[in-house]
Amino acid sequence: MTGAGIVIPEVDAAEVERRTISFAKETSAQGDIGQALARRAALCSVRMERLADQQTAALTERTRQVIADFVPPEGASPETASWLRKEAVRKAMCDVSKEATLARKYEAAAERSFLRCLKELRQMERQAQRGDHGSPFGPMGPMGPGLGSFFHDPDADDQVDAIYDLLKLPRPNRPVRNSPKPPVSGGVDVPFAVGRRS
């Protein structure tokens, strides 16, 4: 349940392959990355369901065993015996054993992985619909959808350099990276108000 999916039962392997094709088609997954995400989502979804089925089967077996082993206390009325039997079944439904706890953790991990893969596939699908086919500058052009910032960002410098190189323009002069403060060539006073007039 925690492996890479190399060794899995034949029935599960067939279901993983079927779901891989189905997920790739539903999300318009393209390329090796899209196919890998679709296969990972398929594998995680099969594991998630398999673990849920195993937990249901284990709880059913525990409940049957409790009912079969139940012996009412001597002298208990039929009403009391019925209530005690129901309480024993209710307690059996809450399996706090190490194995059951581990199985629930595996199921939760498979669900998280499935949802992450699905999110990535949906994002790739939206990018394909927008016509953004892996552009290094994102779907909004060279500057991307973000807003400007007063803070120095080395990644932004790399993007600007890439644009200048693309347009075959000389790169702009900028302060040396990792300098404590950029040089100040002048200042502008900007009036602004704080709070409201009373």
What key phrases describe this protein's structure?
198 residues, mainly alpha, 5 helices, 60% helix
User: What spatial form do the alpha-carbon principal axes imply?
Assistant: elongated
Q: By helix and strand content, what is the structural category?
A: mainly alpha
Main beta sheet: none
Give the count of structural domains. Answer: 2
Q: Uncertain runs with pLDDT below 50, 5 residues or more?
A: 135-147
Give the fraction of residues assigned to helices. 55-70%
Number of helical elements? 5
Total number of beta strands? 0
The termini sit apart by 66 Å
- Rg (CA only): 30 Å
Strand residue content? under 5%
Order of SSEs, N→C? HHHHH
Provide mean pLDDT, rounded: 76
Describe this structure in words.
This protein is an all-alpha fold and 198 residues long. Helices cover 60% and strands 0% of the residues. It is built from five helices and no strands. Helix 1 crosses helix 2, helix 2 runs antiparallel to helix 3 and helix 2 (31-69) runs antiparallel to helix 4 (98-130).
Give a short synopsis of this structure.
The protein is mostly helical. It has helices spanning 10-26, 31-69, 78-92, 98-130, 154-167.
